[in-house]
Amino acid sequence: MQSASYQLYRGRLETYFDRTARDTWARLTSDAPVSRVRATVRAGRDRMRATLLGWLPADMTGMRLLDAGCGTGALAVEAARRGASVVAIDVARGLVDVARVRAPAGLSIDWRVGDMLDPALGQFDHVVAMDSLIHYPAADIVAALAVLAARTEGSVCFTVAPQTPLLSMMHAAGRLFPRGDRAPAIVPVAERTLRRRLAEAVPSHPIARDACISGGFYTSHAFQLVRG
């Protein structure tokens, strides 16, 4: 059973993406024209997705991957093209509906709406949670990663919002932009705190590598946990 804090933040995300920002997010993750602010977010997400995919095997035939917080499905599609059997799940039904429509035919992708920590999802070779944990406090992030790692034979790749003065200033400045350009609430995490808590809570999967992607109004820090 997940904590009350986790359920609260998950509920906020579901409300935001399904009732407020479904169309905006679908546009952001397409090649349609967007504002300058969102263009930097799009570019940053593209770079981050490429980074995480670069940490996965080029040939994933016979492997099972969980795209935890799949959004409109770009990462899930690429993993499936590499031969993976993908379970792509998101709390926002509207985004999953967009992903289903966009996905090419013939790929092994099981699109689902629900909680990425649902035990019914089963075991995986790899898990990717790109920008889906950035809306949770550190304690909830670590607890979620412990659950995911316990079900993963290989690696768990995820991102957090780094706690830096620049990022705090940028989020404060974001309030000056029109409401359509605002991102959902993001919770910055101190790297030292995160590393310490992960070492304590997920000893089976130590940090293998990390990378920070930053540009314009996108800043995210990626980590890969690999079973030791």
Description:
It is a single chain. By secondary structure, the protein is of the alpha/beta class. The chain is 41% helix and 21% strand. The chain contains 8 helices and 7 strands. The chain has helices at 4-20, 22-28, 36-54, 74-81, 93-102, 138-150, 165-173, 191-201; strands at residues 64-68, 85-90, 109-113, 124-129, 152-160, 207-215, 218-226. Strands 3-2-1-4-5-7-6 form a 7-stranded mixed β-sheet, with helices on both faces. Helix 1 packs across helix 2 and helix 6 runs parallel beside helix 8. It starts with a helix and ends with a strand.
What layout of secondary structure does this protein have?
Blueprint: H1 4-20, H2 22-28, H3 36-54, E1 64-68, H4 74-81, E2 85-90, H5 93-102, E3 109-113, E4 124-129, H6 138-150, E5 152-160, H7 165-173, H8 191-201, E6 207-215, E7 218-226
Parallel strand pairs: 1-2, 1-4, 2-3, 4-5
Antiparallel strand pairs: 5-7, 6-7
Helix pairs in contact: 1-2, 6-8
